[in-house]
Specification:
about 15% helix; 15-stranded mixed beta sheet; mainly beta; about 375 residues; 4 domains; 31 strands; single chain; elongated; disordered N terminus
Length: about 375
């Protein structure tokens, strides 16, 4: 009260304007003060199911594999936040999970008030006053079960699955720790993947992609976000529009980028890489006779071997505006300020390095 009286002499008009705003804010807070959540469980017999599909439009999904399990456990938490207890309770009671079977496929789907039919007016109310409504689902399954997860808005976690897994998400982060073959398609959200026993397809329209310990081939697509991969057992096919690419440990690489820099280390095979604007750096093991073709319109190109390249290679390096550095036992057939052509030892493979604007370097250690 002392603080109000001290300012009353010169702030009356301001206070008169502010007080209604404060009251409105308090009224709005009170109107949305009702919260309710409840956790429920269901046990689902397998009955010959070999595949489970989990769908959720407004909440998180978690699927965990467990060795030796003979049934499916489903735990789900219903949550709602709204302005009125009676209305919130009506909506809350319409939320649940539905379980259906079709042949060997078991589907677990979160249910919300329907946008059509008898629930149409309720759904309109929901969108206006009850945006905090969600169902979070955790499903524990036999580890050998095939898994498919579809979400519209919510994070997804998948772990310890031996069979193939597929995840589709419109908006939310994805975390996978253990799967057979893996396919992920995300519109908006980051992706963290590890321990894939087979091949992987990873696609994100907006978000970073990070993956480690993938035994098979990997296909990665990113429209906007960084790509970070380590320990890829097979080949990599990658495309990125905007966002840097870092790969450590891979066999063969095919990469195309628009506005990004790419670094590939521990490459056991060959590389074909094209970038419209950005640098390309490759560190090759040199353990096999492999071809390297790297091109960028604006950026530097660097190729280095950690041992003398097996079988040697024929080299063509060319830059429109930049310098060329070659630390190699090379027999030069043509050289100029911006180009170098020659043969290293037997010349069994081909190395082509081209940039319109940038430096080029290629090197290997002495034998």
């Amino acid at each position: 009260m002392k603080r109000i009286r001290a300012k009353a002499a010169y702030s009356y008009a301001l206070c008169a304007a502010v007080v209604p705003v404060i009251l409105l804010a308090c009224g709005a807070t009170a109107a949305r003060a009702y919260d309710r959540d409840e956790t429920l469980q269901k046990s689902i017999p397998l009955q010959g199911a070999t595949r489970i599909v989990v769908t959720n439009s407004r909440g998180d999904v978690k699927v965990i594999g467990e060795n030796g399990r003979s049934s499916i456990s489903c735990e789900y938490t219903k949550r709602i936040r709204g302005r009125d207890q009676d209305e919130a309770d009506r909506l809350f009671n319409l939320m649940d999970i539905d379980i259906t079977r079709e042949g060997a496929v078991l589907t677990v789907a979160a249910r919300y008030p329907d946008q059509s039919g008898s629930d149409r007016n309720i759904f309109a109310l929901l969108r206006k006053h009850y945006a905090g409504m969600s169902v979070a689902i955790t499903v524990t399954v036999p580890s050998g079960l095939d898994v498919k997860i579809v979400t519209a808005s919510g994070d997804v976690q998948l772990a310890s699955i031996l069979g193939p897994a597929e995840i589709t998400s419109a908006s939310g982060d994805i975390e996978v720790a253990g799967a057979g073959d893996l396919k992920i398609d995300v519109s908006s959200g980051d992706m963290m993947v590890s321990d894939v026993a087979g091949k992987a397809f990873l696609s994100s329209a907006s978000g970073d992609i990070e993956a480690h310990h993938i035994k098979g081939d990997v296909t990665v697509r990113s429209a906007s976000g960084e790509i970070m991969l380590t320990e890829v057992g097979g080949d990599l096919t990658a495309a990125g529009l905007s966002g840097d690419v870092t790969v450590e440990g891979v066999r063969n690489v095919v990469f195309s980028g628009t506005s990004c820099s790419a670094r590939f280390a521990g490459v056991r095979g060959g590389v074909t890489a094209t970038v419209a604007s950005g640098d390309i750096e490759v560190e090759a093991t040199g353990e096999s006779a492999s071809n390297y073709e790297m091109r960028t319109s604006c950026g530097q190109i660097a190729l280095s071997y950690d041992r003398p390249a097996k079988g040697g290679f024929a080299l063509k390096a060319q830059t429109t505006s930049g310098s060329i550095s070659a630390t190699l036992p090379i027999k030069v057939t043509k050289v100029s300020r911006h180009s170098l052509i020659g043969v290293v030892r037997e010349g069994k493979s081909v190395v082509v390095l081209e940039t319109a604007s940038g430096d080029i370097s290629v090197s290997e250690p002495e034998e």
